[in-house]
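Could you help me review a protein record that somebody else here produced? What it holds is a sequence and that sequence's fold in token form. I have pasted the whole thing underneath without changing anything:
=====
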Amino acid sequence: MKTVMATGTFDIVHSGHGFYLNEAKKLGGEDAKLVVVIARDSTVKAKKRVPVVCEEQRLEVVKMLKPVDEAYLGHTGDMFKIVHEIKPDIIAIGPDQHFNLDELRKELKKRNIDAEVIKVTKYKEAPLDSSCKIIKRIKGMEFDEDIFKNCQH
């Protein structure tokens, strides 16, 4: 059985996330194990924006997704530490993740990590196929304040 590692922020989970995880798992064959590493809040803040959903809740939701066998929070600092711990056969890079694949492969080799790096190129297009699009849609909506009276925080 091959272990496939997929990574991401998974802030406001949408159908594109599910599609990416299904495609990642397929890379390992029929009986592949999919392990997902969720970016820490500090990493997301440094590279993207402040996440809407905290890291513990993002981890909890990702663990519930059908293709996911295991999920963990990444480490702060050295992103390769978790790769050493999981020891994946394949690292799946998402279609919207901007890694230099050759540099990533060189760094893995330098660290004696024997994992194949494969870019998932298929992408599920939908009107709300990114967390940013969802956030923008919500920001543009008008809500009756009464709707929030029964919301739990």
Summary: The longest strand covers residues 3-8. The chain has one domain: 3-144.
